[in-house]
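=== Discrete structure encoding ===
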Amino acid sequence: MSVRQLPLSILPWIIAGHIPGVYSMYQWLRKSGWVRTKLVETESARYCYSVWLRHLVKMHENALPTDPQAVAELGPGRSLGVGAAALITGVESYEAFDVVQHAHTERNLAVFDDLVDLFSRREKIPGDDEFPGIEPKLASCRFPDHVLTDERLNRVLETKRLDRLRRSFAALGDGDSCVRYQAPWHDIQASREGSVDLIFSQTVLEHVDNIAFTYDVMYRLLKPGGYMSHTIDFSGHNTAIDWNGHWTYSDLVWQFIRGRRAYLLNRSPCSWHLKEIEMCGFDIVYAERRMHPSKIDKRQLAPYLQGKLQTGDLTTSDVFVQAVKLPATEADSRV
């Protein structure tokens, strides 16, 4: 069992994850405002604005529709801000799926109002200088007026439409709301299958425990010809000294690090995700890897990875992938 990668600074965090009720109590205190933490990215309208526009620009570059009507997001985090940005640009319905409920009404409304201002001003896309490491990378961070034309923005920013969207965030799940928030998300009703044009996520799919199940759920939710857009981060998220040091931990060590937490990391490398995407019936139209040097070699990998990495996996720190749902007949032919 390799523990040489374990930073001593995270030991209190690890221990807290083993004491019944401590982590849940911390989450409750933070949600209620008794514990203040630094602003996380999804609480920033500028971050949400940047994320949605990056996905949108890449859809245009990869000849995917840039006007989906029904959109779902996996793992929105502390606000529904990226979904709000999607709605403001013309999406008509938005569903957010999470494992644990994080977002709350006041935060959503504050982010929504700031987003309206950003789109009204045609603000340029915030970049690495403001959000280091944000993916996917773009050739230009200027406002994408080739996608969001003046005609389109004048239509979607109409006052009555924005008022309706704001009311939807104020009353999640009500009959007239175009916003739905489901946490936990795992139980998807059969009636919901084939109801979504686009599913997206931003650094979320590295956290789901069962990637095959998750991609299968997304395939079933999407309409025929629907598509998905994801940024996946393969780093250890500060659980190891080196960015990919978490791949050296045995299952027993990793179980100790995770403790009782509802989720942490699935530790699946890039090729495993891409394989599952295709096995579930998707056609990958674009996959851009970001490479980062590795200080560990294959001999140091945990047993579950030995001999199972593909070329480039050890140095792939994240990937941006867009894929289209194939018809059932074509998907079945791949199995």
